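Module 6 notes. Inverse folding takes a fixed backbone as the condition and produces residue identities as the prediction. Think of it as a translation problem where the source language is geometry and the target language is the twenty amino acids. Below is one complete input and output pair. Work through it position by position during the lab.
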């Protein structure tokens, strides 16, 4: 939910002569991807990179949108850092799925409805 709101806020920020990799929406998407795939160490790094870009780059126009986005990014960074140990990793999730849904020893065969007619 936070990432959706942040992406909408980032669309209101324009950076002149920016590399497509430096677009705020792109950096937020990467941070979300890292977090979703269990890489809880790199996601805050992307948020920090974006915060530095928003707060200190002269190409970003100053205004209330910039301050609000920077404040919200700082809040998200603090949240991710303080809850870093609470996020499950993909290895833990894969073990949980295997434990609760073990593979069946004899998979059911698919019978054709036309067979035997």
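Target side of the pair, the amino acids:
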């Amino acid at each position: 939910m936070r990432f959706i709101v942040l992406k909408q806020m980032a669309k209101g920020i324009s950076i002149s002569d920016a590399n497509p990799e430096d677009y705020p929406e792109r950096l937020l998407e990467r941070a979300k991807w890292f977090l979703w795939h269990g890489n809880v160490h790199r996601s805050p790094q992307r948020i920090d990179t974006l915060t530095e870009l928003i707060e200190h780059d002269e190409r970003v126009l100053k205004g209330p949108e910039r301050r609000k986005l920077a404040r919200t990014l700082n809040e998200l960074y603090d949240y991710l850092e303080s809850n870093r140990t609470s996020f499950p990793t993909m290895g833990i999730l894969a073990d949980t799925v295997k434990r609760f849904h073990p593979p069946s020893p004899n998979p059911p065969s698919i019978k054709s409805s036309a067979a035997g007619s």
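Reference fact for the lab report: Helices lie at 2-11, 24-36, 42-56, 64-82, 90-100.
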